[in-house]
Amino acid sequence: MNINDIRQQFPVLDQQVYGKPLVYFDNAATTQKPLCVIDRERDYYLHENCNIHRGVHYLSQKATEAYEHARQTVADFIHAKESREIVFTRGTTESLNLLATSFEHLFFSKTHNSQLSTDSQLTTHNSQLTTPKVLITAMEHHSNLVPWQQMIQRHHGQLLVVPMDDKGVLDLEQYEKLLKEEPKVVSIAHISNVLGTINPIKQMIAMAHQYGIPVVIDGAQSMAHHPIDVQDLDCDFFVFSGHKMYAPMGIGGLYGKAEWLEKLPPYQFGGEMVDTVSFEKTTFNVLPFKFEAGTPNVGAALGLETAIQFLQSFDRMEVEAHEKQLLQSAIQQLSAIEGIRFIGQAEQRSGLVSFIIDGVHPYDLGTIIDKMGVAVRTGHHCAEPVMTRFCIPGTVRASFAIYNTLEEVDVFVKAVQRAAMMLR
Ligand SMILES: Cc1ncc(COP(=O)(O)O)c(C=O)c1O
After folding, report:
1. What region, left, alpha or beta, does residue 161 occupy, with left being phi > 0 and alpha being psi -120 to 50 degrees?
2. Region 203-232: what's the mean pLDDT?
3. pLDDT at 243
4. Scanning 26, 89, 225, 341, which has the fewest C-beta atoms within 10 Å of its C-beta?
5. Angle at 409 between CA 385 and CA 9, to 5 degrees
6. Which atom of ligand 1 lies at the shortest distance from residue 92's CA?
């Protein structure tokens, strides 16, 4: 793997910020896009642009074929059984809102669709309504907390939360206890965007299944960095964002086991997702179209396919090893800074490091190192309960990607050292 060659594919990296070469360590927020992805989206608008699934003419068929090919590529990438198990969405947040809304209608609404997969006539649900309980963890991004919380509050239910220890490792004994409280759904981050912890999701999925509870995995931080096999994990749902894996913004996905997606009612209504419509009644389309109301972001879906092909052109283990090396170098060098405290010290962790320094506000530190060309993220990282758990206002977070180098880590650490000296 030649990092210089890889960097050639990311023109945005080759620029000066405040007169200093850009060091981009904000990859957990969004990765940069390689030329092949940018070109693919441009090419679509230059040669193929058309609305899909509805036209008989050449361009519409070409765009439809390309879009469905992209769906198959996503399915293959995460080893889904069938492409109809992949729903394109705007990203992780939309996928989780889709699931929270659909689960609400399936389990907790007074009325819901009697024949969920095909029929829109409302009838009273036969089975007894239960107190809504959803189980998440203490390290979730707001996107995997607020949609469930809002849904639960509408039904006077309960959000169950798996605690974590001071290193940012989940307490699996407590998890087992909480499973016995019979939540309807478990939803867990694969990798924490603040702590970098890689959660033991395979084990946690198996534990939930012993109680017959379906599991959603928030894969926002894992898709770009670790190979995913949804059949091996046996997760019921897996959600992700394209823009965090070298693809354009505005595209992402939801994997769901076909039997679950068949059971869940649609999320949004309109064109595309219907089979037949009259003033009295609507029947819904088959999977995955039932969940794709309206015109999708076709160009971005094609960009996502190209991003996957870009990732597949590397040995994924080599990519993981490279990002781990960057992480280790950063941790080792940062450790020498007086008063530094790492937030998240799990043994199983991904390529990001979060920290605070005594007497230094993360925001001030981030602002100063920005002037030295170094882009990191500061604040609560959309995970305020994590900040509360560690009694801190926020952290500085550096997150790595395939195109980052050890030299950049050195520049970053020097910048942090200088900023800390200036601020204390
Ligand atoms: C773990 C995790 N979940 C969910 C999200 C939300 O992703 P998006 O804003 O792409 O929908 C993020 C974004 O940072 C994340 O890190």
Report:
1. beta
2. 97
3. 98
4. 341
5. 100
6. 11
Contact 407, 373 (CB under 8 A): no
DSSP code of 208? H
Q: Side-chain half-sphere of 357: how many Cα atoms within 13 Å?
A: 25
Q: Is 218 in the pocket of ligand 1 (CB under 6 A)?
A: yes
Nearby residues of 281 by Cβ (< 8 Å), 6 or more positions away: 119, 120, 121
Cβ partners under 8 Å of residue 202, min gap 6: 232, 233, 234
Interval between CA 282 and ligand 1 midpoint (Å):
34
Residue 292, pLDDT > 90, answer yes
Residue 353 φ then ψ, to 5°: -130, 130
From residue 164, give the alpha-carbon distance in Å to each of 140, 168, 390: 11, 6, 10
Closest ligand 1 atom to 190 CA = 1
> Which positions ≥6 away from 24 have C-beta within 8 Å?
12, 13, 32, 375, 401, 404
The pLDDT tens digits for 51-102 are 998 778 999 999 999 999 999 999 999 999 999 999 999 999 999 999 999 9
Of 198, 286, 246, 192, the residue nearest 77 (C-alpha): 246
Kindly indicate the confidence band of residue 265, based on its pLDDT and cuts at 50, 70 and 90: very high
The Å distance, Cα 219 to ligand 1 centre, comes to 9
Q: Is there a contact between 181 and 131 (Cβ–Cβ < 8 Å)?
A: no
Q: Find out whether the beta carbon of 197 lies less than 6 Å from any atom of ligand 1.
A: no
Query: Which residues make Cβ contacts (< 8 Å) with residue 421, sequence separation at least 6?
Result: none
Task: Give the DSSP letter string of 39-101.
Answer: HHHHHIIIII----SS--SHHHHHHHHHHHHHHHHHHHHTT-S-GGGEEEESSHHHHHHHHHH
Give catalytic residues, as residue numbers.
Answer: 382
